[in-house]
Every structure is written in C-alpha cells, then in structure tokens.
UniProtKB/TrEMBL annotation:
CDD domains according to UniProt: ABC_NrtD_SsuB_transporters (cd03293)
SUPFAM superfamilies: P-loop containing nucleoside triphosphate hydrolases
UniProt feature coiled coil, ranges: none
Keyword Transport: yes
Homology family: Belongs to the ABC transporter superfamily.
Pfam (any one): ABC_tran
UniProt name for this protein: ABC transporter ATP-binding protein
Keywords for this protein: ATP-binding, Nucleotide-binding, Transport
Signal sequence interval, chain numbering: none
Lineage: Bacteria, Pseudomonadati, Pseudomonadota, Alphaproteobacteria, Hyphomicrobiales
Length: 265
C-alpha cells in the first residue's frame, strides 16, 4: 500500500475580488508532496506562489478544489505546520530564548522539558551564547535562525517557508541554505519552500515546481537528481547549470508573456 502523501492538492484554485474586479489567481493546481520531501516553488512575481503556500498553511481558503495534509482536509492553521516568512516575525521585546519558548506556550511539556528543547534548537541553529540577546542585537541571518528554531521547536511535520532568505546578503544566504539542509536532514521534516531565486530552489530541493502566470498553474515539475548531502560548490557543476538553464528559460517565457499582456492592456 502506497504511503499517504504529506500534501495533496487537488484542482486547487483561488479567486480574488468580485464582479468586474474578479481575478483568477490560481487555476487547478494538482500537486502531491511525499513525506520528508523538499519541494521548491518558483515563478514570476504575482504567479500565486505565496497564495498557494498560505492555502496549504490554512491561512486562506481555496475558492475551489481541496488541500489535504496527511489525508485530512485543511481547515485552518495547525500545529502540524510551521511557518517561516521573509519578515522575521520575532517579538522585539523577547530574547532569543523567549521567542523560541513562546512556540511551546500551549505545549503540555514540563518546564524543564521545554527549556531543554529550546536549548537544543538554539544549539542546532548556531546561536549558543545569544540566548539572552534581543532581536535588535542580531544580524538578519541570526534573526532568521531564531525564526527557523521557533518554527521547528514544537516539532511540526511540515515546514512552510516563504522567501525566508530573500532579505539576506549573498554570503549569509548561502550559509543559511546549508544550515536549512542540515536541519531538514536531521529532523526529516517535509518542506514546501517558495523563492524567486532559481539557484536557491535547485540547490535545496528534491523537486522544483515552476508556476505559470495569470493564472498560476504548474508549468513544469523538475526532479533535482543531485547527490545529497549537498555542498554549495555543487552550483558550479555542469549538471546544476543545465537544471538552472531549463528553469530560467521557463520563467523567462512566463515573464515575456506577462509583459505582452501588459502591453496589450
């Protein structure tokens, strides 16, 4: 018997607005994500990447179609899903330790158990020694490490990430990508990752989903058949470059299509 998919989207669509202002943002996306799989979603701005992620997370409802997590319909946010956004979403008045501990507020764990979990995740994301620091005292990369630790500390089975490294400089971004892969490999969590960065999408993922624009549909699903664990120098390999050229060509085609629609309007 085949295992139940972690995520199954069946003919999912999203319409915004009403009447003359009605806009079909996403049209009949069918997607299956296996347990422990890392899937990246790329596409032009406005193609519905974040909208789809928010529907999987239960933050907004599909207009039509169904989304199932572990075979059960999504009825809103749940503790089986962790979110990491581009904005760090940290509480500025809480320390690193306090921000991560906040995610365990409704947990039935004892106080010592919570303290130990927080300590463990602070260590895993490389923030030992910064437990009592406040967000304003941290760099962008360090703040995002806190956000990742907070999303994982209550052990969700699915991690949803929306441009989490978009605001970081290139060097820090590369380090965060390698950190994310290590955490993913250690915890065997399923990841659905939205990004504009094609290189980032390929480096991280088992599979890359390219969305077409206006409305958002799956244009291509690309299996990333590169060995794991991955080091960042793999981006210079011929195999990586070939994958990257294919995805960039798809996105360029969609960008030109959007531009031509703008000219026609």
């Amino acid at each position: 018997m085949a295992p139940i998919p972690k995520i199954r989207a069946e003919a999912v669509g999203k319409i915004f607005g009403e009447g003359a202002d009605e806009f079909l943002a996403i049209d009949r996306i069918d997607l299956t994500v296996a347990p422990n799989e890392f899937v990246s979603i790329v596409g032009t701005s406005g193609c519905g990447k974040s909208t789809f992620l928010n529907m999987v997370g239960g933050l907004t409802e599909p207009t039509f179609g169904d989304i199932l997590i572990d075979g059960k319909p999504v009825k809103g946010p749940g503790r089986d899903r962790g979110f990491v956004f581009q904005g760090y979403s940290l509480f500025e008045w809480m320390t690193v330790e306090g921000n991560i501990l906040f995610a365990l507020e409704k947990s039935r764990l004892s106080k010592p158990e919570k303290t130990e979990l927080v300590r463990q995740f602070i260590h895993e994301v490389g923030l030992r020694g910064f437990e009592k620091s406040y967000p304003r005292q941290l760099s962008g990369g360090m703040r995002q490490r806190v956000a990742i630790a907070r999303a994982l500390v209550y052990k969700p089975s699915l991690l949803l990430m929306d441009e989490p490294f978009g605001a970081l400089d290139a060097q820090t971004r590369g380090m965060m990508q390698e950190l994310l892969l290590k955490v993913w490999e250690d915890h065997k969590v399923t990841v659905l990752f939205v990004t504009h960065d094609v290189e980032e999408a390929i480096f991280l993922a088992d599979r890359v989903i390219v969305l077409a624009s206006r409305p958002g549909r799956i244009k291509r699903e690309l299996t990333v058949d590169l060995p794991r664990p991955r080091q960042f120098d793999i981006v210079t390999s011929p195999e990586f470059s070939q994958l990257k050229r294919g995805v960039l060509a798809d996105i360029r085609e969609e960008t030109l299509k959007v531009m031509s629609l703008g000219d026609a309007g």
